[in-house]
Design brief:
The complex is a heterodimer of chains A (about 450) and B (about 575). By secondary structure, chain A is an alpha+beta fold. Chain A is about 40% helix and about 25% strand. Chain A is built from 13 helices and 16 strands. Classes of the chains: A alpha+beta (about 450), B mainly alpha (about 575). Strand 13 of chain A pairs antiparallel with strand 3 of chain B. Chain A: One of its GO terms (molecular function) is zinc ion binding.
């Protein structure tokens, strides 16, 4: 890693916060007041003493040099991770006003860092040998076959459930209990097909989702049916499509694509949560390869996903793609530079082209709800109770999704535009367009909208 | 929503096996989507159309068909026709904020009240409280607001009316443009009369048209802006429709005449004294009494002066008061409210109103050519002192009379200045506001030096910020004394909060010595020392933050723009 000597910016620090309360508490501690004996080392360690309500100050130390993400240690009793002290310390350090000078780490910090690095070293050597030891190809294949059989049984059962539904009519589904779908979803979890389970769970919510629900229910049932059929006939599908089906069903893939080294612009970063798991999506754009890639990272309840990248900055790194036709997901490999400002903007397309892009992407992955595009010159325009992004140079417009209209980011976008064309990156799909990041006319910085 | 492509695209799945699963029935592509949905709603048991195979195969074939149609519909989606684009916002000619200042603004705005965990504040600064100051600095330096920060800024101003003038001035023309699109921010369109954020159109015709056809908020804003620039034109505009306005609207419009009130307004106001609405009459009378040369002021002076005299027959000259015995129709027309609030005698109630509305200049002649100081020093017979002095205070504030204000305030170190004297703290604060900034700060500094901080909060509130050096030192010294006296800091949390916002940041170095934890002695409250250390730490942290804020915004431009 070459993060040494490069300071982060505050956004990057705040993205590490596990929740809004920590973010707020951390920002308050990002001032010199409560801190003493703070310092940082060239190896990428930051430490300091934070005065709390007790008589002894808390000892906080953060190791940011690890490629796997920063590591934290604090003597406070908080179970948040990272705690507000670690966030405050990083903010103070990011502020760069001289309160965290370069220096020699005190013993208590040094001990932890050395212990940590040693363990990491051991794990690396152990990990190398362990993967060799566990590679019993026979056993692995047997396990995979067993799982495939379970999924096949699950998919068959689900097909039965769907045909029953169509035989009796969707109208009956309105009265059907939500619990019925939950039960089917649980059966799919048992069948080790989490992708099917998630789709089934969503089906249960559609009948209560307002006008037009029969169309949406039929669409989703049909696509689920398509996925079932895809799985049951996966041997006869082209390799890419088969891989897409496998990943949609919920089989884990591994990023086995060749590493692509590029300067990656961070297009957007946003979190979604289902209560148990926080999913963070980070969209990247390669300045040379012109590829758009998606990084996913997860955080269990109470923890933020570890990967955090500041929107609008560019860093050099290697990315490896996950398998599957039309899949944009990639894994972040080695990073060569810290994120830094660079005059990179993704090339924009028109509203017509954006809709066509989504249509073309469905060719490879018919289950795709949306596709990432950058609109070159659009004007946010009110349309009755909704909003649309109207092409500045044409007479067509992409409507915004209802959820995007409800978010505060809409008004940041409208304010940024002021009735003039802006460049907008977002996800274009059958529900409409979800704006994620915008750039003003001229050379202004990226503005995150999510 | 997106619209479906009219022409039938060839399926994107062509060539794969999945296509084959759907192609079984006769002419699936020809079946309209709506019909597919209808059959799905009813169920294939109830209705099996000819394009589906009969019996057990029907639901599966229906799903196949729906899958193809769904993907086809999605792949064929096209953009909607564009609605008329909004009129672009007016350009903001001001230079953009330096990047560090823009980040600071985002930080201040993200720290909204209500999101706080509550409880003790610890040593961290209260960022929202620094926003007014930041806005004032940014406005002074003439920067434009970053557009993406406008929604948060408008939300903040929506919740805090005191922020609105500065926030809207900083937000500039684009905020008004936004406010027209979002009902939550409508306040921006009617706020800040004369704030200069949207100068009224100069063409008389357009003014007249807006005045006659505009919404109430637009009309108030128009009148306010016009009044700030051309008082007579604003009054003339108001006269054109005065008779037809509703009473509540008349009251609001009349209120806008407070700006640049002058003797030219007298005929109009005099006429408003006979208005149908009592509130309009009262406001007209109040405005007229602020014009010492007005006929109303003369009438009030005549009435008030008749009630007060100097009695030389006593040992020392003494003011004697004979309050009015009745409230006649003339007094009522001049704005005197005949019925006193519960618990007050009607004669003293009338006297108070007369003395309050009479020009202060009329007292010297009546009371033997004395100066305000001498008049205030005169004893008053029969417990009338409180009533009379309170009325003079109100008059001094209304007429912005510095001589009388000074006399009524008295010297800051006077013993009764700290106690419950004739003039209350609230009245003192108002009197102080008529004095110049430096005199105000000196008076309050003297007051704190003599009486400590316990009564000083209201007075500090009217001092100009940042506090002048003598005032800042007086506050810090008094806090230091309070700490040494062993009380808890939250007894002074109000003053501490003010000090965080108002103390000159250069004082931070002087405060460093106070951030340590003092030794506990017998007469200090347990643990007080560390709480004081915490409070002083927060104070210095906040001062440093303010210094950083100032630095990020840069020096005041050498050629300050006219306000």
């Amino acid at each position: 890693m070459t993060q040494q000597g490069v300071r982060w910016i505050a956004d990057q620090v705040l993205a590490l916060a596990p929740d809004a309360a920590s973010r707020k508490a951390g920002s308050k501690l990002g001032a010199a007041g409560p801190w003493s004996e703070a310092g940082s080392s060239d190896e990428g360690t930051v430490w300091g003493l934070c005065k709390g309500s007790g008589s002894k100050p808390y000892r906080t130390v953060v190791d940011i040099a690890d490629a796997a993400g920063p590591a934290y240690k604090c003597s406070c009793p908080s179970r948040k991770f990272p705690c507000k002290h670690a966030l405050g310390l990083l903010l103070l350090w990011a502020g760069g006003d001289g309160t965290v000078p370069r220096g020699q780490a005190p013993d208590w910090a040094q001990q932890w860092i050395e212990g940590r690095r040693q363990r990491a070293q051991q794990k690396r050597t152990a990990g190398g040998s362990a993967s060799g030891a566990s590679a019993d190809p026979q056993a692995a294949r047997r396990r995979a076959e067993q799982r495939a059989e379970r999924i096949t049984a699950g998919a068959t059962e689900l097909e039965q459930r769907l045909t029953d539904l169509l035989r009796g009519g969707l109208a009956a589904a309105e009265q059907a209990e939500y619990g019925l779908w939950e039960e089917t979803a649980a059966r799919m979890v048992d069948a080790q097909a989490p992708g099917l389970a998630a789709r089934v769970r969503e089906l249960g919510a559609i009948p209560s989702s307002g006008p037009g629900w029969p169309v949406r229910l039929l669409e989703e049932c049909a696509l689920l049916h398509l996925l079932d059929q895809g799985w049951l006939r996966r041997e006869r599908l082209p390799d890419g499509t088969a891989a897409t089906v496998r990943s949609r069903v919920g089989l884990p893939g591994s990023p086995d694509g060749p590493p692509v080294r590029d300067h990656w612009l961070v297009l957007a970063q946003y979190d979604t949560s289902d209560g148990r798991l926080t999913t963070r999506r980070i969209w990247l754009y390669g300045a040379t390869s012109q590829r758009t890639a998606l990084l996913l990272s997860y955080g269990a309840a109470g923890r933020a996903p570890e990967l955090a990248l500041p929107v609008g900055l560019t860093f050099a790194a290697e990315l490896s793609a996950y398998p599957g036709a039309g899949q944009l997901r990639a894994a972040l490999g080695e990073r060569f530079t810290a994120p830094a400002p660079a005059p990179v903007r993704p090339p924009g397309v028109s509203a017509d082209q954006a809709a066509a892009r989504y249509g073309e992407a469905l060719r490879d992955d018919p289950w795709l709800d949306s596709f990432p595009v950058t609109l070159g010159r659009v004007i946010p325009t009110p349309a009755e109770d909704a909003w649309q992004l109207a092409d500045a140079d044409g007479d067509t417009a992409l409507p915004l999704t209802p959820s995007a209209i409800a978010r505060p980011g809409l008004w940041r976008l409208v304010a940024l535009s002021g009735g003039a064309p802006v460049t907008v990156f977002g996800e274009c799909g059958h529900r409409g367009f979800t704006p994620l990041t915008a750039w003003p006319r001229g050379t202004g910085e990226a503005v995150a909208l999510c | 929503m997106l619209t479906t492509h009219p022409s039938n695209l060839d399926s994107d799945l062509e060539g794969t096996d999945m296509r084959a699963t759907a192609a079984a029935p006769d002419t699936p592509a020809a079946v309209p989507w709506e019909e597919v949905v209808t059959v799905a709603l009813l169920g294939t048991d109830r209705r099996t159309p000819p394009w589906l195979p009969p019996g057990r195969e029907a639901p599966r074939a229906l799903l196949d068909l729906a899958a193809v149609k769904t993907v086809r519909r999605r792949a064929g989606l096209r953009p909607a026709p564009a609605k008329p684009r909004p009129e672009p916002a007016a350009a903001d000619p001001r230079p953009p904020l330096p990047p560090a200042a823009a980040r600071r603004l985002a930080m201040l705005l993200s720290n909204r009240p209500g999101t706080a965990g509550g409880g003790r504040r610890g040593t961290a600064p209260d960022l929202m409280e620094l926003l007014p100051q930041w806005l004032a600095l940014a406005n002074e330096r003439g920067f434009a607001a970053p557009p993406e920060a406008l929604p948060a800024l408008l939300d903040a101003a929506r919740g805090r009316t005191d922020l609105r003038p500065a926030a809207l001035a900083f937000a500039g023309p684009r905020a008004l443009w936004l406010a027209r699109l979002n009902a939550d921010w409508r306040f921006a369109l009617r706020s800040a009369p004369g704030g200069g954020s949207e100068p009224p159109p100069d063409e008389t015709d357009r003014i007249r048209q807006l005045w006659q056809e505009g919404l109430f908020a637009e009309r108030v804003a128009l009148l306010g802006a016009l009044r700030a620039r051309r008082p007579a034109a604003a009054r003339a505009l108001l006269t054109t429709t005065w008779a037809t306005e509703r009473a509540e609207d008349r009251l609001m419009f009349l209120d806008s005449l407070r700006t640049r009130l002058g003797s030219a307004d007298e005929p109009f106001l005099e006429q408003a004294l006979s208005d149908r609405s009592r509130n309009v009459r009262a406001t007209a009378a109040e405005l007229l009494s602020a014009l010492p040369d007005s006929a109303l002021a003369g009438r009030m002076a005549e009435r008030a002066v008749a009630c007060v005299a100097v009695d030389r027959t006593r040992g020392e000259p003494t003011i004697v008061v004979e309050a009015p015995h009745q409230c006649d129709a003339g007094m009522e027309r001049d704005g005197v409210v005949p019925k006193p609030p519960a618990g007050r005698g009607e004669r003293s109630w009338w006297l108070g109103q007369l003395a309050e509305a009479a020009p202060l200049g009329s007292w010297a002649a009546r009371l033997g050519g004395r100066t305000p100081e001498e008049i205030v020093a005169l004893p008053v017979a029969d417990d009338w002192r409180g009533e009379l002095h309170a009325a003079w205070c109100r008059a001094a504030v209304r007429q912005r009379d510095t001589g009388w204000s000074r006399a009524l305030l008295g010297p800051p170190s006077a013993p009764d200045a700290g106690g419950p004297g004739a003039v209350s703290l609230a009245e003192r604060a108002k009197l102080l506001s008529t004095l110049g900034a430096e005199e105000r700060a000196d008076w309050v500094a003297g007051f704190i030096a003599a009486h400590g901080l316990s009564e000083a909060f209201q007075l500090l509130g009217v001092c100009a910020t940042p506090w002048a050096a003598p005032l800042g030192r007086a506050v810090v010294d008094a806090l230091n004394i309070a700490r040494d006296a062993g009380s808890y800091p939250w007894s002074f949390s109000g003053v501490m909060g003010l000090a965080e916002r108002c103390l000159d940041p250069v004082e931070a170095t002087r405060l460093d010595a106070l951030t340590g934890i003092p030794d506990e002695t017998e007469d200090t409250s347990p643990g007080a020392g560390s709480y004081w250390a915490e409070a002083f730490q927060r104070l210095t942290t906040t001062l440093r933050l303010r210094a950083a804020m100032q630095e990020e915004l840069g020096a005041v431009p050498p050629d300050p723009r006219p306000v």
